[in-house]
Write a structure and sequence with these properties.
Elements (H helix, E strand, L loop, with lengths): L1 H30 L3 H4 L14 H9 L1 H33 L5 H13 L2 H14 L7 H25 L3 H9 L4 H12 L1 H16 L3 H6 L8 H12 L3 H21 L1 H10 L4
Helix pairs in contact: 1-13, 3-13, 4-7, 4-10, 4-12, 5-7, 7-10, 8-9, 10-14, 12-13
Length: 274
């Protein structure tokens, strides 16, 4: 009976994974199809004529290289900013008695529920007054950081609470200050959770579209997502070219997830286990 239940759970898991990954699979195979095969009825689930001309067309255009570098710069800066602000903030909320901490955490939760369209106008006014529009920092980095910081603070705070205070007290006995104990004791223990926050923040910034095109009118600074949006009008109904563009854009995300899979899983569950 137990084996049957285990087999049913595994089967259900495989079905759910297949359902969620099917759009990615369809995007990739469409990139290798010809225009004729794409609109063929019934559709084919594997290219009859395996071709890479769409990738050649995209790469020869030259724009994708600039878009790719912009995405790397924006995502890296946003991730760095999130970690620099979220890690010490989460530690402070976990270790110190702060008046109004419940209200503060509630505000963090509310910001996670707000759609991007709600904050576009206020952010645009702020960035315009600070002369930060049409730059890397103006919209893409600072705006996407507003998504990663609340998530990271909430996750890391839970993890820091689960770390015994005795570790820091032992470090203080050995002559460490609170700052040194935080850097040399707490941070190494927290690496899995910090990796999760960094990866999620990177994914937020990498997949951003609305902030990039709203706060940045200079197309030379657009990321890959905005490049795909721009390519829709350029290539029209040439879906294999568009899917090639999209496939190239998700490759870094897939690589990062595969390389950090162990840390991501460990970090996501570590905050809930004391």
């Amino acid at each position: 009976m137990n084996k049957r239940k285990e087999w049913m759970k595994n089967l259900l898991g495989v079905i759910l994974v297949a359902v969620f990954l099917f759009p990615v699979y369809w995007m990739i195979i469409t990139a290798f199809k010809t225009q004729t095969e794409i609109f063929q009825s019934p559709p084919t689930f594997f290219p009859k004529e395996f071709q890479i001309s769409s990738f050649i067309t995209i790469l020869q255009g030259g724009d994708i290289t600039q878009y790719f570098m912009n995405s790397v710069i924006i995502s890296s800066l946003a991730t760095l900013l999130v970690l620099l602000l979220a890690v010490p903030s989460a530690y402070g909320l976990a270790r110190f008695k702060i008046r109004g901490i419940k209200t503060m955490l509630l505000i963090y939760l509310v910001t996670q529920m707000l759609p991007a369209t709600v904050v576009l106008t206020p952010l645009f006014i702020v960035f315009n007054n600070l002369n930060l529009l049409n730059s890397y920092w103006g919209g893409p980095v600072l705006a996407t950081s507003t998504l990663g910081i609340p998530f990271s603070v909430l996750l890391l705070r839970t993890f820091f609470i689960g770390i015994p205070k005795e570790l820091e007290e032992a470090a203080k006995i050995d002559g460490c200050s609170r700052l040194r104990a935080f850097l040399q004791v707490i941070i190494p223990i927290s690496i899995p959770s910090i990796v999760v926050c960094g990866a999620i923040s990177f994914f937020f910034a990498w997949g951003d579209l609305i902030y990039s095109i709203t706060f940045n009118r200079n197309q030379d600074l657009w990321p890959l997502t905005a490049g795909i949006y721009n390519a829709i009008g350029r290539y029209g109904i040439e879906w294999n070219n568009l899917m090639s563009f999209a496939t190239i854009s998700v490759i870094p995300v897939i690589i990062i997830f595969i390389l950090l899979q162990k840390h991501l899983v460990e970090g996501l569950v570590s905050g809930s286990v004391k």
